[in-house]
Amino acid sequence: MTHHQSALTTLIGEVLADPDLAHTDVFRRMLQAGMQDLINAEATVKIGAAPHQRTPERTTRRNGTRPKTLATPAGEVDLAIPKLREGSFFPSLLSPRRRVDKALYAVICQAWIDGVSTRKVDQLVRALGNDTGISRSTVSRICAEIDEAVQEFLHRRIDHTWFPYLFLD
Predict the structure, then answer these.
(1) What is the domain count for the chain?
(2) pLDDT-based confidence at 2, cuts 50/70/90?
(3) DSSP annotation of 93
(4) Which residue range(s) make up the domain with 142?
(5) How far is Cα 115 from Cα 136, in angstroms, rounded to an integer?
(6) 75 - beta bridge partners?
């Protein structure tokens, strides 16, 4: 019988063996190892077989990995997302194409409401510390989502409940 030992188990052993390790780096490495284990387990379920395993339930094969850097409170975490020969795979614990966090999203929304142009939003994002900035197409997509939400709000039905007062403008 083979004994499976994940990278996370190894890191926990390192922490217990050496209490002088830098805690932030250890937490970042533990988070990275844990997330990588979850990603690999989800890929195994989707494929129907572990790496190098042959089963009748296998639907496709692994075809290398692609790197993904994830910004976390513990620091940047480098992950390897498995690629498949047939079909696609993206782990459910990650958000696809989600590079703008909620605070930055709120800043972009407020800038749009205040009438700042999409080109100047890129400068604003860089001033806030995001070195890569943000593309005009991403700003336009976020603004389109705002427009859609506002239209839903403006055209919602209000006959589902009783309102004591109704002010019309």
Answers:
(1) 2
(2) very low
(3) T
(4) 102-154
(5) 14
(6) 72
Residue type, 113: I
The tokens for 42 are 């989800």
Residue in the structure block whose two tokens are 């403008």: 169
Residue 64 is assigned to a structural domain of this protein: yes
Residue ranges with strand state E in 11-163:
62-72, 75-84
Residue keyed to tokens 């958000």: 95
Q: Tell me the whole-structure pTM to 2 decimals.
A: 0.51
**Domain stop point among 84, 111, 131:** 84
CA distance 166 to 40: 54
Looking up tokens 């990603």 gives 39
pLDDT tens string 24-81 = 677 788 788 888 999 999 998 888 888 888 888 888 888 889 998 887 777 788 999 9
Distance of CA 62 to the CA centre of its chain: 22
Beta bridge partners of residue 78, listed in sequence order: 69
**Beta-bridge partner residues of 100:** none
* Residue in the block written with tokens 């922490």: 15
Residue 140 CA to residue 93 CA, distance in Å, equals 26
